């Protein structure tokens, strides 16, 4: 009997080790709250779209000699791509802000790739050829000039940094996300 229990314990520990090496993949589905051009909240889980970097919500860019809110336009593009659809995400890691890093789809649209294709997000990793096509076609951000989001963040305090310094703001944001998720489940709504 003792050998049998030891065998089960070893199999269990090996299974946990294998799962650990695979990064504990997480699959989620539901109606999201769009935070910005590369971040959503789904069923209370904050998700960063993996392999892309969209302008920060407060970021400004230049197009046809005029300043415009490119961060807000990127958010609107992600909302447009989602429409009223449910979103499914597969996550396999976390970023420095403890957001799940995920690849997400709304129906047949892979959102990570579509944001780069539309020109409203920059690629790193597997979407780089998609970014080249968006740049050559002058889509989205490529219609003008802009600071790469990473460079812009280096000179500005981001919303996530402010959240980290203000627990009350984080609590309110978490409650708001939970209420939005509940509303979406009940009424099947999407953000406008």
UniProtKB/TrEMBL annotation:
SMART domains, alphabetized: SNc (SM00318)
Identification of the protein by name: Nuclease
Lineage of the organism: Bacteria, Pseudomonadati, Pseudomonadota, Alphaproteobacteria, Hyphomicrobiales
Entry-linked Pfam families: SNase
Domain TNase-like: 33-144
